[in-house]
Amino acid sequence: MRRCIWIGFMILGTSLWGQEEVTEVTQVGQIVPEFSVTTLDGKNLNILDLRGKVVLINFFATWCGPCNQEMPHLEKEIWEAYKDKAFTVLSIAREHNAEEAAAFRKEKGLTFPMAPDPERKVYSLFATQFIPRNILIDKEGKIVFQEKGFDQEKLNSLVEKIEQLLKE
């Protein structure tokens, strides 16, 4: 009997081990959930006000290693390259207040729009866990790309998608 129970647990464990947990709340193809934030510059911003622009929503935390690796790339390769086009970045500091986010922004020399999300209210509209996380919204407000984590391949895919959307 014990052997049968042990074998059952082994089979269950093996079948669950290979499955990745779904952490996205949103899906590519859907309209971006409506939300409002107050940026570190004191501007009240509703996502609906950004229709007509390509929008990169970036979720990060100051303590997150991959987030810290990603930030200089977002500044140089994305924000500085596309900020003068119909494009914007909205970086959202998950679980940070305005003071913490502002200190991080200053320390890292970041200039793109940033907003705090101390209680995960905005983040929870998009995901349950894992950062950094990028969601790309087209000019009509539809999610066209979403990715978690950071590496050069993911960054290249994101830049390629931004360029494609800006040509449309």
Structural features, described:
- The protein is α/β, with parallel strands linked by helices and 168 residues long.
- It is globular.
- Strands 5-4-3-6-7 form a five-stranded mixed beta sheet.
- It has helices at residues 2-17, 65-82, 98-108, 152-167; strands at 36-38, 44-46, 54-60, 87-94, 114-117, 133-137, 143-148.
- The model is unreliable at 3-18 (pLDDT under 50).
Question: How many angstroms separate the termini?
Answer: 64 Å
Unreliable parts: 3-18
Number of helices: 4
Largest sheet: 5 strands, mixed
Shape: globular
* Name given to the CATH architecture: 3-Layer(aba) Sandwich
CATH fold assignment: Glutaredoxin
Query: How many whole angstroms does the radius of gyration measure?
Result: 18 Å
The fraction of residues in strands falls at 15-25%
**Total domain units:** 1
Helical content class: 25-40%
Strands, count: 7
What is the CATH superfamily label? Glutaredoxin
The ordered string of helix (H) and strand (E) elements is HEEEHEHEEEH
| CATH class bucket | Alpha Beta
Instruction: Let me know the average pLDDT.
Output: 90
What spatial order of strands do you see in the largest sheet? 5-4-3-6-7
Structural category: alpha/beta
